[in-house]
Design a protein that fits this description.
CATH class of the largest domain: Alpha Beta
Pfam families: Peptidase_S8 (PF00082)
CATH superfamily of the largest domain: Peptidase S8/S53 domain
Oligomer: single chain
Helix content: 10-25%
Distance between the termini: 26 Å
Protein name: S8 family peptidase
Strand order of the largest sheet: 16-17-15-18-20-21-22
Strand content: 25-35%
Organism: Pseudoalteromonas rhizosphaerae
Largest sheet: 7 strands, parallel
InterPro entries: Peptidase_S8/S53_dom, Peptidase_S8/S53_dom_sf, Y4bN_pept_dom
CATH architecture of the largest domain: 3-Layer(aba) Sandwich
Shape: globular
CATH topology of the largest domain: Rossmann fold
Number of helices: 15
Length: about 725
């Protein structure tokens, strides 16, 4: 008889009260040093304001950069009170590498990661700040904030111009403005300024996310730097090409005999959607598929239908099995929404994004797949419009989205990094492995990590997507044949097939975050580089995820945490087990509210997880007594300065396994605290509870009764019931 994963772990948890505290902060600069530098910098900024053309500003405001010393990365040192004091508007922030004038500690890097904060204000406001800082006595709290500032300067046009396509006389730009949806004066001033340069601003396609507005602009080549002189422009780049297939993939129609599964009606308890190029009405698998064609999509193309059909087919059947000459049966039906049209210009990424947005806003689907996106690598210092828009629509946790990472992994350096929107923290980003066998590697074309911090572990994992040595053999509905191909476009829906399959064959209410955690928990990395493969090779069947060995128990915890709540999560290592070693593995996942205008502080929800091997030795009220760092994240970050004090707590997915001698564990627990951080100085939305999921494995090496003893000694836990395909 098989043992299946165990549910209701949250029934074991309890609230605890734990005091926290930290020592005094070491400051690199005295107040006198910091004040002298700030006064000098503000004088230079005011000179730059005087040199600015009036039509390059909105309401006479200029955007200025406040760069903090690398020692002040945590959001608790964010100087929002300083800006409020002088009526200066905080517009957002991003990360920069800086070489400070000096450090407060002996051991330090040459340069460090720092927070660059954008603010806007009129000349008179910066002048008032200059006079106050130079001549007045300031309270201690203001002095401390000033001591955190490394440098203040204007935001120059050349910093804003990103990748520009030089191949055309007319540039199609994606412009990012520091402007909320209600900032009409900024919109009007920018439009008037762009028109003086002969530019055309397409407001109908504009996207507002938080404090940023993304919009398409057409302008003559050579005038992009002039356009970037507008003060509220944050960034501009050429609208990238859309990726929905591997550009130079080997693609072969195979003369293989094959059989498709016999159609049987499926009883879906949830809905699944593929957002792609459509499938067309004439195909033999239409019983499993329902196609939606938005009214704005008037035309298609065989290449779009081929891609959409093959992505659907991968989700339904997985890859062709050459031994049985057949495909596996689907776990669910699937909807496909056409988001690509042959009429899209170049193609128009804003139109495609709007169609995706419209589907996600309906919140009909528990699972979706995106095997397309902009073809460009991620920037650490800014968040792309696709990432911003879709991440904010997924932040409530209603949906698990598998997203292909892109197929430019063979490019050098940064160009080979994962592509938007697979850098979202609220999605499940999937790269390709060379094979489904044990000797797998990252497929050379599969885009590499890391993501930005937070979201450093990207891709989330790899799935077989084909390679030169072993093509991905997929059923093509368009030609009713088997096609041999490769690409992350196939790895992503293959992963979704497993994820939705876990849900379909279990009689248990699993959240999307819990399913993501189960997939990550079962990923195997071996000796592979985490930046290449993420958490590792993902399981290729739901059955591999839901079964436990005799000497292990896998427990699912799903619960909520209120802001600043401390939750104690027992690790139910059973009494009376006969073994020397106990292996513990834990995977936490949750969805987070995101701030696209603050890439460095992108997630507003975080967990601090403390492991205590012996609950009985905890001193009352002591946060750090008898604790250890179960989730040491040193291996996730390349450099010491990136592993800042609070970096790990803002990751939305953490996973680690450790081995303990049996006698060192006595009622072990995780103590978990939910941290929320403000958006600038705005506490909006921070009182919402955090929905977390934890997958915990307890393996007592060689003890065959581990699973049964966990259930016997914890009466509120139940083994999850499993069905052989839920049929109507």
């Amino acid at each position: 008889m098989k043992n299946f994963i165990i549910g209701y772990g949250e029934s074991l948890t309890t609230d605890v009260k734990i005091k926290s505290g930290s020592g005094p902060k070491a400051h690199p600069y005295s107040f006198a040093e910091a004040r002298a530098k700030l006064v000098s910098d503000l004088q230079n900024v005011i000179e730059d304001v005087d040199a600015k053309q009036p039509n390059q500003c909105s309401n006479g405001e200029i955007v200025v950069k406040f760069i903090q010393h690398p020692s002040y990365l945590a959001k608790s040192y964010y100087p929002s009170q300083l800006f409020k004091k002088f009526g200066i508007k905080d517009l957002g922030s991003r990360s920069v590498k800086v070489k400070p004038r000096k450090w407060a500690v002996k051991k330090h890097p040459v340069e460090g990661l720092a927070s660059c904060i954008f603010v806007s204000g009129t000349r008179s406001k910066f002048e008032a700040m200059l006079n106050t800082v130079a001549h007045e006595h300031l309270p201690d709290v203001t002095q401390k904030l000033i001591r955190s500032i490394e440098q203040v300067s204007s935001f120059s046009a050349h910093e804003k111009v990103k990748a520009i396509d030089e191949s055309s006389k007319t540039l199609r730009l994606e412009v990012v403005l520091h402007a909320e949806a209600t900032d009409r004066p900024v919109f009007q001033s920018f439009t008037e300024y762009a028109e003086t340069l002969g530019g055309v601003v397409d407001w109908q396609r504009a996207k507002n996310v938080g404090g940023l507005t993304f919009l398409p602009v057409e302008i003559s080549k050579g005038l992009e730097s002039e356009l970037a002189e507008f003060s509220h422009v944050r960034a501009l780049r050429s609208v990238p090409k859309l990726r929905f297939n591997r550009p130079d993939a080997i693609r072969t129609t195979l003369k293989e005999s094959f059989s498709l599964p016999k159609y049987e009606p499926l009883n879906n308890k949830f809905k699944v959607c593929i957002l792609d190029g459509g499938i067309g009405s004439e195909n033999v698998i239409k019983d499993w598929i329902h196609e939606h064609i938005p009214v704005c999509v008037q035309s298609s193309h065989p290449s779009l239908l081929a891609h959409g059909g093959e992505v659907c087919s991968t989700y339904l059947f997985g890859p062709f099995d050459p031994e049985t000459k057949s495909f596996k049966a689907p776990y669910t039906n699937v909807d496909i929404v056409r988001v690509l049209s042959a009429d899209d210009r170049d193609p128009d990424l804003f139109d495609v994004l709007t169609r995706i947005e419209n589907v996600l806003k309906e919140k009909k689907y528990k699972y979706i797949n995106l095997s397309l996106g902009p073809r460009l690598p991620i920037d650490d210092d800014d968040v792309h419009v696709w990432t911003s828009v879709i991440d904010s629509l997924l932040q409530d946790g209603h949906c698990l989205a598998t997203v292909a990472t892109g197929n430019d992994g063979e490019l050098e350096g940064e160009d080979g990094r994962i592509q938007p929107p697979s850098d979202m923290v609220n999605c499940f980003s999937v790269g390709s492995s060379t094979t489904d066998n044990i000797d797998w590697e990252r497929a050379p074309y599969s885009c590499r990590g890391p993501g930005r911090s937070p979201g450093i572990v990207k891709p989330d994992g790899l799935m077989f997507g084909g390679s030169d040595g072993e093509l991905f053999k997929v059923y093509s509905p368009l030609t009713h044949s088997i096609v041999g191909t490769q690409g992350t476009s196939y790895a992503a829906p293959y992963a979704l097939r497993v994820a939705a399959g876990i849900d379909a064959i279990t009689d248990f209410d699993l959240s999307p975050a819990a399913v993501r955690a189960l997939m990550v928990h079962h990923a195997e990395r071996g000796e592979q580089d985490i930046h290449d493969v993420g958490w590792g090779k993902l399981p290729n069947s739901p059955e591999a995820v839901i079964e436990c060995k005799d000497d292990e128990a896998i427990i699912v915890y799903q619960g909520t945490l209120e802001r600043s709540q401390h939750l104690r999560i027992p690790i139910p290592v059973p009494e009376g087990i006969n073994c020397k070693w106990v292996h513990l593995k834990a995977t936490f996942c949750f969805n987070a509210v995101v701030d696209p205008e603050h890439p460095l502080h992108y997630t507003r929800s975080g967990l601090v997880v403390t492991f205590r091997a012996n609950k009985g030795k905890v001193k009352e009220g002591a946060e750090h007594a008898n604790t250890s760092d179960f989730f040491s994240l040193g291996g996730l970050y390349e450099t010491e300065e990136e592993l800042r004090d609070d970096a790990h707590k803002w990751e939305t997915c953490i996973s680690r396994k450790r081995r303990f001698q049996r006698e060192t564990l006595s009622s072990p627990v995780f103590d978990v605290k939910y941290h929320a951080r403000e958006k600038g100085g705005d506490p909006e939305g921070l009182n919402d509870p955090l929905h977390y999921s934890l997958i915990l494995s307890i393996r007592a090496e060689g003890e065959k009764e581990t699973y049964n003893k966990v259930l016997q000694q914890n009466q509120t836990l139940e083994a999850v019931k499993v069905t052989n395909r839920v049929r109507v």
